[in-house]
Amino acid sequence: MRNEPAIAAARELRPGRYPDLGGLDLYEKVLAEFLGAWRLDPSVVDGFLAAPAGMASGTGSDIFVHEQLADALGLHPRFSETLNVGGATYAVMAARAALAIASGRAQAVLCAAAGKFPKVGAGGAEVMARMVSHPDFEFIYGSFIPALYALAATRHMHERGTTREQLAAVAVSTRQWALRHPDALMRAQGAITVEDVLRSRPIAEPFHLLDCSVPSEGGAVFLVARGDIARAITPQPAYVRGFGEYHDHGPVSQSRDVTSMGAREAGRQAFDSAELRPADVRVAEIYDAFTINPIMFLEDLGLVEAGRGGRFFAEGRGAPEGDLPVNTYGGLLSFGHTGDSSGMSMLIEGALQTMGLAGERQVADAEVVLVHTYGSMMADHCTVILGRKP
Amino acid sequence: MSREKPLPHVTETTRPYWEGARLGKLMLQRCRRCRTAIHYPRPWCSACWSTDLDWVEAAGRGRVVTFTVVHQPPFEAYAGDVPYVLAVVKLDEGPQMMANVLGIEPAAMRVDLPVRVVFERRSGGFCVPQFEPARD
Ligand SMILES: [Zn+2]
Questions:
Q1: Measured between alpha carbons, how far is A96 from A220 in angstroms, rounded to an integer?
Q2: Is residue A56 part of a domain?
Q3: pLDDT band at A59 (very low <50, low <70, confident <90, very high)
Q4: Which residues of chain B approach chain A closer than 8 Å at the C-beta?
Q5: Is A336 a domain residue?
Q6: Is residue B25 a part of any domain in this protein?
Q7: What is the pTM of this model?
Q8: B48 CA distance to ligand 1 centroid (A)?
Q9: Residue B1 has what pLDDT?
Q10: What is the pLDDT of residues A105-119, one digit of tens each?
Q11: Which of residues 142-201 of A touch B (CB under 8 A)?
Q12: Which residues are registered as beta bridge partners of B30?
């Protein structure tokens, strides 16, 4: 890409519960963590992107986020907005920032997120259900997040032969990675087996508790910069090689094919723009609110043949010793799902793997890393391909 | 949180749908220009953007595209209902809609099950379209 846009710095807050912090307070904490970890010159930054604060807390979203935070940071950007594409927000930020840099409209764009997650037991499930369902034509039927994803899983099992055990294998594989991440929420719980997943409490068939991601709070910040600026910050930035997006159905009941969604089109655009093929991908970081997601999207993205996604995990191919590591930070399933900033986690990990900064869980030869995120009920899709070479 | 099941918010656009349901009719919009059948109600045809739409009664028959059996009630109003079936139904006229499938053992649920519409009475005189297995 022109001007070689690259992620030059990235930092994620340890996921957890931050009950005393509102949306903007959490933003402040995340930004302080980032600035403490990276020595940056504010004068090079001319872009700033943020997401609404407090959306998932059900208190009403604060949409004037970038103005407040840019002021606090002493920035006067020429490229700035508060944008929301649900879980796809942050991959879309990386794509927008890369476009701005490629076109010369910006040279270094700071992208930030802070996510709250309402307590499921304290009315949170109802708040979230209303938000992701059609309020008058879905919510009235007792729809809520795990059940809506279960609709995709049931049809995938019917059409493509995916099994209950294969879904559980996704949770098992992802937990193995979480054991290698110091900040993963489920690290202390240790490894799990397929049996553990099947024996956990049923939520909405085929999902049991361990098929569901772990609600938490957190956030992250990354900087996308022109190649020369990025290389002055870090010897191996994560170059944005390509990206694609596609916005499919709204409410999930209106999906034209619940087994295959917009990831196919977003991925095709990403590979085309990067001039790469699925076989070039060494690591895949895929949004995983539930165990069905990595199976569906590995298939849609062409990383695994259609109908083989479940078998891929059952054979351990996405696990630490596998041939295509998937969700190397522990995924939303075991690292933690940080509410409205959850779409950051796989992007930050993709950047760290590409930069060679993933510590204990670093994959050797992470030359090309694919990050796939989606927003709302798998409605918005954005794929970003990162690489060690521009 | 309430013990009552949720009720729809009725607008000028959706009123014929809910009034039809009260009379035991599943209503769909049909585009006068391109004949596309539409659910959920909206002021335009999503296929051709014509704003010239009719209301027609659906046959009330369709097939289950997919479903889940819910074991954990999402909120208090559903505490007495679990396990319940949440499904997407494709109507014979074409549109898809969400509903519960009633009158079936959850273990007997399957994809492609033929279903027909029934109406569930809720508070405030609302009738909500639901489905049950088609027996013919
Ligand atoms: Zn029309």
A1: 17
A2: yes
A3: low
A4: 1, 5-9, 14, 39-40, 65-75, 77-78, 81, 84, 86-88, 96-100, 106, 111, 128
A5: yes
A6: yes
A7: 0.96
A8: 4
A9: 45
A10: 999 999 999 998 877
A11: 142-144, 146-147, 150-155, 158, 201
A12: B37, B54
